[in-house]
Amino acid sequence: MRFAALGSGSRGNATLVESGSTRVLIDCGLSAKVLTQRLLSIDVEPSSITGILLTHEHGDHIGGVATFAGRYGIPVWSTPGTWRAASITAKIDLRLFLGHGGALQIGDLSIAPYPIPHDAREPCQFVIDGDGCRLGVLTDAGSITPHIRERLSDCDALMLEANHDPALLRAGPYPPSVQARVGGAFGHLSNQQAAELLDRLEHRALRQLLIAHVSANNNREDLVRSAMAAVSSELEQRLVIAPQSRNTSWLQI
User: Fold this and answer.
1) What is the 3-class SS of 102-168, one letter each residue?
2) pTM for this one?
3) Residue 239 in contact with residue 185, Cβ under 8 Å?
């Protein structure tokens, strides 16, 4: 199994996961044109995507889904709450699932959704199994719950949000209301929250650590790396920071 972050952050989110002949896109917040370009840059034909999984309805996660899924006839998987809040009227192949339900089987991938605390209708993230490997995905969560720790406890790879540094957020350009949202219990994880989660997981077994949804305004790469190094110097050396607006490469699990 391998995965690639095609976009990460407020400019648009999309992550591709592949195992065998199955390719699943987590979120589709990039325009169809940009997403197509980034898929082709890693030698993936857009028409080969097996399905699209939505985490929640915010525009940087679903902005391109109607056009992209409609153009290539790709099924879209969503929780009922996310789909209602998305207010998408385009005719697409919609498959509904519960964020607290059992695993979905999409081709060669077993995908277990789990609920997260975020300011959306029915947000979720995923633990994905394929080819004997397990990938845990956690972004757009304002706090860490015991259930999140339990779901991510036995992963070979993690895609983990480290959105902001609290001091930079307080001193940054966002108005107080937005600062409160981002730093609140239903906003986004800070560097320290991500590091604390990793410290309580079996992080030494991780083959890949992709840090995602890093704010361009309220964070810096050196602060992310410093927070992870406080957990483990080996962990800091293994991490990759997902690109916000440039092409990326595959990460093999």
Assistant:
1) CCEEECCEEEEEEECCCCCCCCEEEEEEECCEEEEEECCCCCCCHHHHHHCCCCCEEEEECCECHHH
2) 0.96
3) no
Residue 247's pLDDT band (cuts 50, 70, 90): low
Torsion angle, alpha carbons of 13, 9, 116, 192, to 10: 150
How far lies 55's CA from each of 35, 213, 217, in Å?
A: 17, 14, 23
β-bridge partners, 164: 190
Terminal Cα distance for the chain, rounded: 6
Q: List, in order, residues 6 or more apart from 97 with CB less than 8 Å away.
A: 77, 78, 79, 104, 113
* Residue 104 phi, psi (nearest 5): -95, 145
pLDDT digits 0-9 by tens, 74-133: 999 999 999 999 999 999 999 999 998 899 999 999 999 999 999 999 999 999 999 999
